[in-house]
Each structure stands twice: as structure tokens, then as C-alpha cells.
């Protein structure tokens, strides 16, 4: 994930910064409780494509 792109991207719901999870290839928004997938190096910032975070995440 390009660090400059990560600086620009924010959660589409909470407008907060995202945390890059390299292992799961996701961008995590703790504020919204969602994880947005990264497919072929492209972040998919659609709420319909995001998965809800588990309690322990």
C-alpha cells in the first residue's frame, strides 16, 4: 500500500484516518467499525463492500 495514498484516504462514513492491515489486506476504520478490502492493490472504499469488525479487532 502506497503510504502517500494512505495519507489521503479517509473512512467514507466517519471521515477519520484508516489503519492499514497488511496481513488481511484491509483498511480499518475503528470509528466506523468497518474494514475496507484492498483488491489487486486498489482500496475498495464502498460501504457495501466493507465488513464489520469483530469485537476483539
UniProtKB/TrEMBL annotation:
Belongs to the UPF0434 family. This is UPF0434 protein SMD31_06815. It comes from the Bacteria. The lineage of its organism: Bacteria, Pseudomonadati, Pseudomonadota, Alphaproteobacteria, Rhodospirillales. InterPro entries: Trm112-like (IPR005651). Gene3D superfamilies: 2.20.25.10.
